[in-house]
Every structure is written in structure tokens, then in C-alpha cells.
Amino acid sequence: MTRPTIAVNAALMPRIAPLIEDRHTLVDADGPDARAAIALVPGGGSAVDGAVMDAMPGLELIAVHGVGYDSVDVGAATARGIRVTNTPDVLTDDVADLAVALMVSVYRGIATGDRLVRRGGWAAGEAFPLGHRASGRRVGIAGLGRIGKAIARRLEAMDCTIAYSGRHRQEGVDHAYHPDLVSLASAVETLILVLPGGAATDRLVGAEVLEALGPDGVLINVGRGNAVDQPALVAALREGRIAGAGLDVFADEPDVPGELLGMDQVVLQPHRGSATVETRGAMLDLVVANIDAHVAGRALPTPVN
């Protein structure tokens, strides 16, 4: 019996191969053998549009390694009868942890303090500016989905007051609702973005939102980099129109604006919200579970379409 061919992004191949190669034939998603694939496991951010799908005439499944699937044209996949899956829930806690860690790091100057100690400044008696209290803040969450709610639970334990914005008010949520980001930013001290990517959120957080956040405000982004007007953010930070930022995602990854690199009020991370041994393992397991279910004709564990 011929084994199904699965096209896998090269960066994921070493990790997924031990879980799946005993029953499937794995090929490089960017290689010529991918044409024979029935399933595709794209890399993070790899665009999968109609042209990519048409280049794999036997494609039946796109198993996204991540919760976000904005890089996949789901409409084009649906029109072609191709199923799409993702890996929700398993990364919720790690991304929420990082969002809160970034917030605390910005307010307390943790990254700046680390650099001071490493370069010998503390031992030399170099003055270190006081940080600010992170607990008890008014925090706005843009995108109160699974991850947003997990962030809110952590912040409640820090005596923070939570507000949120989204397409609509959510049933059973007691936090204050704001219909737009300008209203939300005006009401809080810290704005945490957990927004998906795509055209609907492109540069949604621009100069007007940052102006509303104000000179004491802090922006945290663990969603998608395209949701922030990056030049507007750099200008707001440079001119002191917001106080600081904690950023795990950027508009053109892995490129980061050079000005941000020299700003002590900014904490930077290399898009590692889900980057723990535990979560990345669970994500791979869920990708494999979706592939195996599809091949066996069972219901997909986490379908998108």
C-alpha cells in the first residue's frame, strides 16, 4: 500500500519527522516532490494561497503549526475542498505568561537591569533609575479570545482592572467593554494586543490609538506584528508620547527597526510566545493528530473550515 506523502516546511522537518515518518512519506514543502502531497504543514508565516494549492493537485489538508492561520487563504482552500486545521488551546498559557512577563519587564526595567549587571555597571556604582509598579494597573486587552482571557486571569491576580475591545461585547464577561481601540486606549494604562493578522487588523494600532494611550502608557504585543503601524510606534516611543513597549512580534520579521534596539524603555523578543518545550511538543502532536485523523477518515480534532 502506498504511503501518503506529507509536505513539511524544512524548519519543522527535524522535529515532526520522528512522530510521523513511520507511516507517511515526508518531503520538503518547497521541493519538487511536494506536488504529490495530500497534506501540507507550512512554516510559521509561510503564505499558502491558491497558487500554492494548485501546485499540489492532490492536496487535501493544510495542517497549520500554530493557532494563527492568517497566512492561509482559507477561502481558496474551501473552494478547492481542502481542509485547514490549526493548533489552538495548547499554546494559550505560554503566550499569556509571556504577555504578562513583558508587561512586568517594561514597568520594572528588568532587561535594562540585566544589561547593567552584565556590563559591570552595578559593581561600579552606576546609578539605576527606579522602575514602576506593575500590579494594580488599568489594562486593556485587544482580542479577548482564549489567550486574552488567560492574560486577564493572570492580571486579576495582580489586582489589575481589565477592559477589552473586540467586534462585539462578549456574553458572560464582566470586564468593561469598549467598541473601538481608541476608546480602550484612552481608558487604560497598559494596552495588550492579542490580535490576529490579516487585512482586517493591518496597522489597526496607529498614531491615534497611541496618542490615546498617552505618555504614561505601555503597549504590549503578543498577537501579530502587522496590527501595529510600526513607524508610528517608533515615533511615539522616540518622542515620549507613550512610555514603553514590550514586543514579541514585528511587521517584517525577523527585521526589527534599528531605533527600537537602542531604546531602554522597550523589551524585545524574537516571536517566542509559544516557544517552550512543552507547548511546541503539544503543537506538533496536534498537527500529527490532524494528519492521522484525515488519512484515517476520522473527524479532524481542530478544524478551521
Remind me, CATH topology of the largest domain?
A: Rossmann fold
Query: Structural class of the secondary elements?
Result: alpha/beta
Count the domains. 2
| Beta-strand percent range | 5-15%
- Euclidean distance between termini CA atoms: 29 Å
CATH architecture of the largest domain: 3-Layer(aba) Sandwich
Question: What does the model show?
Answer:
Residues 100-273 form the D-isomer specific 2-hydroxyacid dehydrogenase NAD-binding domain. Keywords: NAD, Oxidoreductase. Belongs to the D-isomer specific 2-hydroxyacid dehydrogenase family. This is 2-hydroxyacid dehydrogenase. This protein is of the alpha/beta class and 305 residues long. The protein folds into 2 domains: 5-88 and 276-296, Rossmann fold (3-Layer(aba) Sandwich); 92-268, NAD(P)-binding Rossmann-like Domain (Rossmann fold, 3-Layer(aba) Sandwich), CATH 3.40.50. The protein contains 11 helices and 12 strands. It has helices spanning 13-20, 50-54, 74-79, 92-108, 110-118, 146-156, 181-187, 207-213, 230-238, 258-261, 277-296, and strands at 5-8, 25-28, 39-41, 61-63, 83-85, 138-142, 161-165, 176-178, 190-193, 218-221, 244-247, 266-268. A 7-stranded parallel sheet has the order 8-7-6-9-10-11-12. It has a 5-stranded parallel sheet with strand order 2-1-3-4-5. Strand 6 (138-142), helix 6 and strand 7 form a beta-alpha-beta unit. It is globular, with a radius of gyration of 21 Å.
